[in-house]
Design a protein that fits this description.
Elements lengths: L1 H10 L1 H18 L4 E2 L8 E8 L5 H16 L5 E9 L2 E8 L5 H18 L8 E2 L3 E14 L7 H16 L5 E7 L4 E7 L1 H6 L4 H10 L4 E8 L2 E7 L7 H8 L2 E5 L2 E4 H4 E7 L4 E8 L5 E6 L1 E8 L4 H18 L4 E8 L1 H29 L3 H25 L2 E2 L1 H29 L13 H28 L7 H36 L10 H19 L1 H18 L15 E7 L6 H16 L4 E9 L12 E8 L11 H12 L6 E5 L1 H11 L14 H16 L15 E8 L1 H7 L3 H13 L1 E8 L2 E9 L7 H5 L2 E5 L2 E4 H4 E8 L1
Parallel strand pairs: 1-18, 8-25
Antiparallel strand pairs: 2-4, 2-5, 3-4, 6-16, 6-17, 7-16, 8-13, 9-10, 11-12, 14-15, 14-20, 19-21, 19-22, 20-21, 23-28, 24-25, 26-27
Amino acid sequence: MLDKLVEAAVRNRLLVLLALAVFLGATALILPRLKLDAFPDVTNIQVTVNTEAPGLAAEEVEQLISFPIEAVMYALPDVEEVRSISKTGLSIVTVVFAEGTDIYFARQLVFERLQDAKEQIPPGVGTPEMGPNTSGLGQVFQYVLRAQDPARFDAMALRSLNDWVVKLLLMPVEGVTDVLSFGGDVRQYQVLADSKRLLAYDLTMADLASAIESGNRNAGGWYLDRGAEQLTIRGVGWVRPGEDGLRDIGNTPLKDVDGVPVRVRDVAEVAFGPEIRQGAVTMSVRSEDGSSRALGEVVVGIVLKRMGANTKATIDGVKARLPAIQQALPEGVVIEAFYDQSELVERAVATVTGALAQAFVLIVIVLALFLLNLRATLLVLISIPLSVLLALVVMAWWGLSANLMSLGGLAIAIGMMVDGSVVMMDNIFTHLSRGDSAVKGKVEGGVALRIEEAAREVGRPVFFAVGVVVIVFAPLLTLQGVEAKLFTPMAVAIVLAMLASVLVALTVVPALASYLFRRPLASRPNPLLQALERGYGWLLRGALRVRWLVVAAALVLFAVSILLIPRLGTEFVPELEEGTLNIRVTLAPSSSLATALEVAAQLEPILMTFPEVTYVSSRIGRAELGGDPEPVSNIELYVGLKPQGEWTTAVTRPALQETMEAALSVHPGLLFSFSQPIATRVDELLSGVKAQLAVKLFGPDLEQLSDYGARIEALVRAVPGTRDVALEPIAGESQLVVRPDRDRLARFGIPVAQVMALVEDAIGGVEAGQVIQGNERYDILVRLAAEERESVEAIGELILTAANGAWVRLRDVAEVRIDSGP
């Protein structure tokens, strides 16, 4: 079979050239479809279900939302795991499907089962929604929105611009599935009520919310004929946006007392205010003159790539849209990218390109010195790009991703890819250098026959040599789970490149050789080869004379290598130098957002003193919905670095991290964990926590788990080589608990629901409609004034009702205290 293939290639060399030209043309069409990613996406097939439950404690979120959703998801086919995270006001349920499940089919199954889950969730608690169709490595691009004049555009204005301008312009970009807004204040129209005024007019928070909602609606009355015209009937009763809206809400009537209307403004203050948030972003940057500058609070947008989309193409599409977005923003507002995975993709491509260039240079030197023929060298050089292109075209056709691992596989295979062509060309060169007597029969076209004969001689050895390499990498194709997603792309790339190289060596090289070599070559002695042969002969004769010594030395080296194996370090995957550091700072579990902001403001200047740092972005807590559900006691510091060749503080990243940790440790009570953005995401996908190694403990008692966890932490710290050992907090979040006394409530005739309504509506706030301006929608929130809920004592003094001429306060019928919750 191989002989016939070689014979057909030489005798039909014109067809081979035409096929090669067609292949190159097809490459230009297919290769742009190749997916370029920074790192293999190890995310399993998963669908997240997010539920916002404003103000609800973590215990209630678990019982009322997370558990019902989990229960219905287990019945889905091909479900491997269902896990959840329940936090105050937020539930995130993750449904993991078996590998090979179509992601859109999985999302459809989850959507159908969500309808059953909604029936089990109490009304008004929260509405489950599926999360964006992205993966663990989907945060491919991040930008910052900042104001050149903070007095003109505050954090609330920047957040509105990001939500209603920037995000809407980025969503149509191919490959983008969502854009998370992080930081800033979400604008609300807030009605801050005075409980004493409400009581004086015999009004409740429910009356206030109901009146505002009733006074904020539009209506349609179909059509009205007017002569030859037809008029559309509209009733426009929406609250107007801006300051006019505040006046409209304030003028909303609540009731009539002795012919005098009582308006909202009589019992409450109406003003713009921020939504209750659990996250913020601050940033410091380095100017062109080398000085650092703190930007304070900014708004960050995180672009999420759709699962399976082309990372490089998605980022390029986002970058192409940025100039148009900048034009759409008001003067004085700037959008700037600060995190971009396309740089990693470009570095990975540059690595392969550099390996190709090095291979070209080495092949030119070696072949030129040994063959002393430029045409033979050229033929071998052609085989490398053809093999690489053929492998990439097959990957693009199959939808495989070209990432750090697969492109690294091509870089590894470059040295092996050229072997077949070198052997083929060397044998052809040898045959062409022989006399005419070497040709069997005097026929026209004797050179072509020599090339055909030479190719047939080495065809089988070349094929089986490549086959051995393919067989060596074949076990990697049988890996499953995370290991398969990491190493299979590399194995596939190498196998495809090797198969392509043997095809080129057996067909293209002989066919092109028959064109480039028209006559036999003159045999010339090669001084270099003669010198090497003489040296090898001398070395071989010496080794045979003292063969016992050679064997003994080999045995000693083997024994020494066996002894050194236990000291050989191992890694699951090599560390990728991303050019960005990710520093996780953990505060006490009860820390507030204001405390975290103060800590971030103290840490950023310390990091900016390092000349290698270009920016520091502090992400505190979490976004409103989507992304990592971190508490406000967690700060994620993104530290941008200059190219490693420009570093002066340290030569390597681990050394730089140690120096930074020593500088940051002047602040006691903080736990620092150093990593990189993609490495952190990969660690989290592997273990469920943001660490390279995690110990998980399961049990029903949180106190026992915390106690055993502390013991395990102490033991792990004592293990040599460990660093940044931390126990993930499962308790310690402070709570203000309002627990009604039912006997006292019965004495005053007050139902429990009235107390709970005070906690939920008056303190937490109740939505009373929206203010709509074009595509922008802002909530109207009704709650008590800040001074009435600013402390435990103030909340205890809240008035529930009047009984027997006296006010009944919350502290009279309920226990109000601070507790350490789970």
